Amino acid sequence: MGDIEFQLQLLMAQKKIKSITQLAELTGLSRPTLSRIYNNETKRIDANTTYVLCKFFECEIGDLIKLVDKKDETTENN
């Protein structure tokens, strides 16, 4: 089974965005939503949020969201 990781920290660093508050002001997205994405505390993301972030960072969805394979812990322990 896999998981997803958001690359918001990396994209913000590349654009020299220093805070979630600053990003919220620049994009119009809510600070709590951005904070959950930034800290990888969400498993879903609204299509409009994805669109706004991709447009702002001039990136593709794959630059914002990374698929991560997780090893099956039951097979590792056997």
3D structure, described in words:
- This protein is of the alpha+beta class.
- The protein has six helices and two strands.
- It has a two-stranded antiparallel ribbon.
- Helix 2 crosses helix 3.
- The longest helix has 11 residues, at 47-57.
- The radius of gyration is 14 Å and the shape is globular.
- The protein starts with a strand and ends with a helix.
- The mean pLDDT is 89.
CATH superfamily, called what? lambda repressor-like DNA-binding domains
Order of strands, widest sheet: 1-2
Q: What global shape is seen?
A: globular
Which structural class should the secondary elements be placed in? alpha+beta
The ordered H/E elements are EHHHHHEH
C-alpha Rg, in Å? 14 Å
Overall tally of domains: 1
Q: What is the name of the CATH class? A: Mainly Alpha
Oligomeric form: single chain
- Poorly predicted segments: none
Strand content range: 5-15%
What's the total number of strands?
2
Residue share in helix? 40-55%
Tell me, rounded to a whole number, the average pLDDT.
89
Classify the fold: give the CATH topology.
434 Repressor (Amino-terminal Domain)
Total helices: the number is 6
Distance between the termini: 18 Å
In this structure, how is the largest beta sheet organized? 2 strands, antiparallel
- Supply the CATH architecture: Orthogonal Bundle
